[in-house]
Design goal:
This protein has 179 residues and is mostly loops. The protein contains one helix and six strands.
Length: 179
């Protein structure tokens, strides 16, 4: 871990870009087992300033991962990090690294924000045409300041931009029941 999937297909890493193919966010299934998609902007929202709560500690005394909740510029790591080394930065649902590390692509095209009324991913498209060639990224990254790690902060760019600060999350729900 620690390395980002790239747009190049090195060492069997699939070449992936959000929004590619027929104007809709496509499923990513190569080597994953189950089809997945990038989250929409609305699915990433909550009422917290940061995924873990209202404060972001940037004091860097002692063990850096024990004093900062996310891999942002102030952490001084200087690159991506393994998910899980900032356990006190976990969201209430248990998800880690929702802020910092890499800007995460969302399936939502860049539009006027906040949205008016109820918005679903499907309503952001007209037929197979995108309403925007730019997609939203959320969460900040290791190379950006704390303000970008806020839940409400959004960035947008086109999927053809290549940088070590952009990525996406692969997640799978597992049932804990024995049935």
């Amino acid at each position: 871990m620690g390395a980002l999937p790239s747009l190049r297909s090195d060492q069997g890493t699939p070449s992936l870009r959000p929004g590619s193919g027929r104007g809709r966010p496509q499923a990513v299934s190569k080597g994953v087992g189950d089809a997945t998609r990038a989250p929409s902007t609305s699915s990433r929202q909550g009422r917290r300033e940061y995924p873990w709560g209202t404060e972001l500690t940037t004091t860097t005394g002692g063990n850096i991962t024990a004093s900062i909740q996310a891999n942002i510029d102030e952490s001084t790591i200087g690159g991506t990090s393994v998910v899980g080394i900032f356990p006190h930065g976990a969201a209430a649902c248990g998800a880690e690294e929702l802020a910092g590390n890499v800007w995460e692509w969302c399936s939502t095209p860049k539009l006027k924000y906040p949205f008016e009324g109820e918005v679903s991913v499907e309503s952001l498209y007209t037929g197979n045409k995108r309403v925007s060639g730019r997609y939203v990224l959320r969460g900040g990254s290791w190379g950006r300041y704390r303000v970008y790690a806020r839940c409400a902060y959004r960035l947008a760019t086109t999927p053809d931009v290549v940088t070590g600060n952009y990525g996406f999350r692969l997640a799978r729900l597992f049932s804990l029941s024995s049935s």
